[in-house]
Amino acid sequence: MYDFFATLSSDCRYFRVRPNLQSGTMSRIGIAISGGPNPAEIVDLVVLAESMGYDSAWVAEGHGGDQFAILAACAMRTSRILLGTSISSVFVRTAPTIAMAASSVADLSGGRFILGLGSSHKAQVGPEHGVVYAKPLTRTRETVAVVRSLLRDGEASFSGATVRIEKFDLWYPPRHRDVPVYLSAVFPKAIALCGEIADGVILTRSTLGTAAPVRAQLAGSARAAGRDPGGLQVTTLLPTAISETRTAALAALRPGLAFYAGFFPRYNKLMAAHGFAAEAAAIADAWARGDRQATERAVSDAMIDATSIAGTAEQCRARLDAYRQSGIDLPIISPFARGPDAKARFETAIRACAPDGAG
User: 65, 109, 229, 358: most buried, per Cβ within 10 A?
Assistant: First the structure.
């Protein structure tokens, strides 16, 4: 899974780890953890995922624990699994703060870190953090530039439209200077930005038809920027529910999809683009009225099935294989669990979806 090579420096005193992201392609799988388990439980879950052969573990933030702190703890208890943010918002942290956090986790993990960045949502950034949400693609582009400059050179100055850094320097020489940067994307403009500047894309709630057009868009923008599109990784977060019956698994995912398509305009638009325009319109209408039950009723089984991993363990593994065959390099299961049994439900999903039947 990893290639070891000397990082060129004046004295070559250290080695770093470069993830070999192309190995084991047909069985690669990631686990994303967003809320539910507490920080210590998340670390336990990542240790379990590593033991089950998972390629990577991704930690969201939102209203959970600090993702970088959790990933640092994971780094100290694991040795192989890749660790990533999915995603870290470019609005709620400054670019230097992101760079310091990324450098820290990369250092502690021996280079097993992937920095997943995104703009988050206007519906969250302003009301929840008191930060003005404007020019999200520009903010993302400029944040990536500053972060890479700090990781590469240890210092940065930048004057952009959304990010202005007179001067910032790290007080130590970063050992891992080329941390992979993946960007979240839903629609063509963001996907084009990924092709232009990122190492990979983090999609969400994809269908089996998503990968082909995304790959074409990535390739076009990469070539226009003078980059080789061959190394760009296509990943997707997939809401996941394991149950004894497919019906029960679909039901478990319904509230989450109702919330996402109701609260976030971007995801409502995504569901419509996936071919569920009538459902998306009904969800938006019910949500605007404050009728949460009607919002859930508007979510069809077909819409859940098209954008999620739901069913028995066998059905879920088959669905993951279908995503890989469709052109997704790394499907990332994202179980939804809240309450006192959240950790147990994540454990069930990790074991059920383990690569090559390891669970």
Answer: 109
Does one domain contain both 142 and 224? yes
Same-domain status, 153 and 51? yes
- Give the tens place of pLDDT for each residue, 96-124: 999 999 999 999 999 999 999 999 867 77
Angle 282-286-291 from CA coordinates, rounded to 5°: 150
Clarify whether residues 260 and 327 are in a common domain: no
Asked if the structure places residue 113 within a domain, the reply is: yes
Using an 8 Å Cβ cutoff, are 238 and 334 in contact?
yes
Which range of residues forms the domain containing residue 287? 245-311
Span 280-314, pLDDT tens digits: 999 999 999 999 999 999 999 999 999 999 999 99
- CB-CB contact of 219 with 227 (8 Å): no
CA angle 198, 199, 201 (to 5 degrees): 75
* Structural domains of the chain, count: 2
Residues 107 and 185 in one domain: yes
